[in-house]
Write a structure and sequence with these properties.
A hairpin with a 5-residue loop joins strand 5 (about 120-125) and strand 6. The chain is globular, with a radius of gyration of 18 Å. The protein is built from 8 helices and 8 strands; from the N terminus they run E-H-E-H-H-H-E-H-E-H-E-E-E-H-E-H. The protein has helices spanning about 15-25, 30-40, 45-55, 60-70, 90-100, 110-120, 160-185, 195-210, and strands at about 1-5, 30, 80-85, 105-110, 120-125, 130-135, 150-155, 185-190. Helix content is about 45%, strand content about 15%. With about 220 residues, the protein is an alpha/beta fold. The protein has one domain (about 1-25, about 80-210): Rossmann fold, CATH 3.40.50. A 5-stranded parallel β-sheet has the order 2-3-1-4-8, sandwiched between helices.
Amino acid sequence: MKLLFLGSPGVGKGTYAQVLTDVLNIPHISTGDLLRAETKKGTSLGNELAKIMEKGELVGDDLMLKLIEQRITESDCKKGFILDGFPRNLVQANHLKNLVDITHVLNFKANDEVIIQRLSGRITCKKCSKIFNTASIIPKEEGICDKCGGELFQRKDDQPESIQNRLDVYREKTKPLIDHYTNDGLLVEIVINKNITEIREKLITQIKAYLEGKIDVIEEIK
């Protein structure tokens, strides 16, 4: 079972991936986490990645594929995995197809107003980067990080106007990718406008039924 998760900023796919990795007993492979982990190892690949990232440049397709190939051959991926953050375009998708056969593509969606409300309440620690939310993950002391005591702030790209722009750009760039996986018969849309704590069991039940071939589509999870 080799799953690919798609979803716009703020849709919550990372959270859903964490829930499902525990249920399905397969690892969640986030490309962001992969890059950070490899650079910390001090390997030749990690050092090469660090130099690219320090310059603020994007990691090339060849290096990303090498990193992903290295990760999915590890023993915990024998039963499958959840891939999150790659591919981001058709070129990358075609490269990925030469590397592994993705079995299911789950495209998580939510209404813009839900995402804007969710992200505009997000505050981040300046010191350790832990994320809180003024509506759902409230720090014990206002403006102070529970983890390290650092100062909490709102990033400019978490303000409503910036969020809407990010959503528009995401859709424009991702549409060809969604069409590609739809045409391949691999993609299913999952609309979730509720907090994960409210629909956790419904989410698990619906997705497991889909992956087991018991249902062909997933209704909006309410």
